[in-house]
Amino acid sequence: xxxxxxxxxxxxxxxxxxxxxxxxxxxxxxxxxxxxxxxxxxxxxxxxxxxxxxxxxxxxxxxxxxxxxxxxxxxxxxxxxxxxxxxxxxxxxxxxxxxxxxxxxxxxxxxxxxxxxxxxxxxxxxxxxxxxxxxxxxxxxxxxxxxxxxxxxxxxxxxxxxxxxxxxxxxxxxxxxxxxxxxxxxxxxxxxxxxxxxxxxxxxxxxxxxxxxxxxxxxxxxxxxxxxxxxxxxxxxxxxxxxxxxxxxxxxxxxxxxxxxxxxxxxxxxxxxxxxxxxxxxxxxxxxxxxxxxxxxxxxxxxxxxxxxxxxxxxxxxxxxxxxxxxxxxxxxxxxxxxxxxx
Length: 343
Prior knowledge:
The chain is an alpha+beta fold. The protein has helices at 12-15, 70-86, 94-103, 214-235, 245-250, 308-311, and strands at residues 24-28, 32-33, 42-43, 57-58, 66-67, 107-108, 118-119, 121-127, 143-148, 163-168, 196-197, 201-205, 256-257, 281-287, 324-329, 339-342.
């Protein structure tokens, strides 16, 4: 089933013609629950990984001997899904509540040091044939595979994610690994993706306002404020909320490839390649939800009648405080190390 982004509530270029010079495209991936195969682009699906190639592991020093079991996390999700199907009024039985309490327990893995290798979780794979805005890989590679450590314990703060990205030529893969190693426990359920197939859709996008020329940014801000004031007056008479540049007209929510990054949490800062100093470009956005619970103007046409929960969170991935993770690549040399930012 395709997923179609509704037309934008208004033509922003009609109000600000100079935005045409900044117009770009991004590919909304639209991950939805399914049964992907190794030859498919997917989130949380099986990866086209050579049987004779070592699986990525995290060896950065941090605690990894305590957490939740993968099977318990998946069983907990199944119980909640079954409860939702019965309806809110049915609620959970006493037996189900006891089961959930048991499933949410943490366990210790004895004898594990802070540097023992932890199998990383295969988060996603993207074939360039499926994703129009996926940046080129090095040396003709056509498949991007994304992994992350299942513990929130990296970086300067000790509460940051750690990713590893691999590019490969899919045609060169022979026998495929069918049972990749898994961590004994994970530090956070949000690092465990549910298997999702993708429904890629290319849409128009514009830069984050703070990255536009100052005069244009100031005029957009003033325009947004005027529309908000107008909407507040209308809401008193039963009107709808304001349509704004940042949340309705520029950068779509959800998993996507290419286009522009949002900087709504930190405000923009330089994201330059640490190898050659070239300004980096957005490769991939990993998002905690596919649309928000407000206006939901980006909600696909095919899902316009669905409530935000749980349909807006098909991957079950949670980034930071239910935010998004933007991964950047070097346009001068795709083989240079990637960088990322949580928003």
